[in-house]
Predict the 3D structure of the following.
Amino acid sequence: MNNIFHTWNTIPILSLFLSISLLLGFYQIGKIIFYNKSLRNIFIEVSDIKYQYLIISVNFILIISYPITLFFGLLTKYYLILLSVIVLILGFYKLVALLLKLKNLEFSIKKNINIFFVFVAILGYFLISSGPITSADSLDYHLYVSKFLAENGEYPNSLNHFHTKLSGAGEIIITLGLISGAEQFGSIIQFTGILSIIGVLKKNSDKIKDNLFYIIVLLGSPVLLFFCSSLKPQLFQIASTSLVFSILLFANNVAKKDIIKKYLLSFLILAICTQVKFSFMLSYFILGLYILYDSFKNKIFIKTFFISILTYLAVMLPPMVWKKIKYETDIFNLILNPFPIDKPGLDNFYNYLINAGRSNDIILGIIIPDNFSTMTNALGIGILLYFVLFKKFNKNLIPIILITSFFIIGYFKGQPASRFFFEPFVWILIVLNKSDTNNDVPKLFKFLVVCQFFLVIPAIIYGAYNLSQGNINSNFRDKVLTKNASGYSLFKWANYELKKMNYEGPIFSMHRSISLSNNLPISSDVFWLTFLKEEKYNDYLAEIKNLNPRYILSYGTENNEQNHILFKKCQIKLVKMGEKVGNHASRKPFGRGNIYNGYLFEIDTKKLPNCLDYDKLY
């Protein structure tokens, strides 16, 4: 059975090299953008400029590229290829320049155990991000959408895969990696969000010890293990909004003529973040209101208000128009909610998203994990630094209002997941770092934070070793994916069997990792988010009938047929069974499950939907 690759490139170490080259290319673009003196003046007060080259260049490219990918059809594919080539050329140029400078480099690492382990943690997170794609969400829709965009020059618009509706501008960066033969580029970009945040935290060079403490708090947050091992475009955008937070509150010496530019830049970054992930609407709303408030104090409210409208129209209107066309929805509804919930089925999906996990103790889960296997969901005890802000209440009043607003609105209206609150957690660290409050942090708490950091270090080293060895060669990559990527073995078997059968048509996939399928997959989303026997879901049924899949890919055991029990009355015929073909793979050493069989059933879609046994499903 052939290994599953996501690009034309089947040499893992070359994929890593190309990912690094793309990274350097974006770095070079950022460096060019920062030749603008006004832009440098805005950032110089809050961060080392070089740490923000990637933040500015990537967001700049996304602002330009997203409308093109939505509306230019076949030209989009050639545009993305051209863009990939340009970035790669710039990356190769930068790489050669770095190699020529190597002989003149001097390395100086101070004899401080904390600094040494900070470097170990950063290197570890990079190695984790450099590994093959293994996260569940990545293998479900982030990678699927990006592969579709790379191959077809447009976003997928199937009714029957609901999770693709969550995709946005962030998938463009993943797509550029796939086109270039660099499959892990998307996760490495997420890793660089850490570097951006560190650039802000280390700016105060006269307080090296204080800066190091807050960097340790950041790197010791277990949730970074999740962020760095995923294509999910979240950590990079958190770094982007946190940079905006920094310049709004702490770039106080910006020339008067540049203040309006600071507001414009802030609105642009915040707006494109909302198009990468819907959840950033909250930071857009909170920081956007602050910008208007601050502009009122600076007596440029009218100009700033018009800038907010123009940036909204430039960045956020094109996706709304696209959704109005594709989903046949009302554009005014999209203004209130960027997710098209007025279509049957999508309303069920939206309710699922905002309520999944709501019954768990979110507050406790933010601080400590429920158990060892959910370690990477927690932010850690560093979040308790929020209360230190109140020791200088008057000085920190505005940050307290912004951060508290995020917590309150996020708790009641946001995603019920602790990682959703990593954004205000970073804001807390920035405020404490910039407002001379380090002496207000109790020594015992500092000790506990450092202990947490050293407890996370072994997990970082394990993750780095476990995933990065997939870069050595194809055999190591296959072993890493078999062990860590849910569904990899199942789809590897199914692809092999379907190829032997000379079948290239669509299949129903009862496993969520559909990006691993060589055949066009119809996601199981459609069965648990709609009731195909009802008339209002006729569009979904019509699409299935039109695609006419002949096979169902399922998995389970002889004693557990839950994954395909819905079809038992459809007179499905078992055509292939892979005994013990896979197991419930996971990147967490204590999260791996039992071995299961793989099944390929033949189905006659003419019998749908009457034969579906929804009673068994629910």
